[in-house]
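Query form — protein Neutral ceramidase

QUESTION: What is the three-dimensional structure of this chain?
INPUT:
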Amino acid sequence: MSEQSVKFYNETTDKFEEVHGCIPAMGYSFAAGTIDGPGAFAFEQGITTPNPFWNLVRNFLAAPTEDDIRCQSPKPILLTTGRVSLFLR
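ANSWER: The structure tokens for Neutral ceramidase are given below.
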């Protein structure tokens, strides 16, 4: 839905704004697991600070653009799923 835009009424500014969807991405909290079971590697729900090691791994697969980071904020991006392209043979 990154190509979609809609009018949004911002109650803080008392004005209408045009907002748009983001390229799909999964945050660090995705890796933390759910109430049904924990994830791996000590990820925690609700984390809002990135980790340099996991960002290096993420960037190897598909680095997010500055626009992706801004659009997904305050969620730190673990996997930019909308930019990953795997070539399987």
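ADDITIONAL NOTE: Residues 23-79 form one domain.
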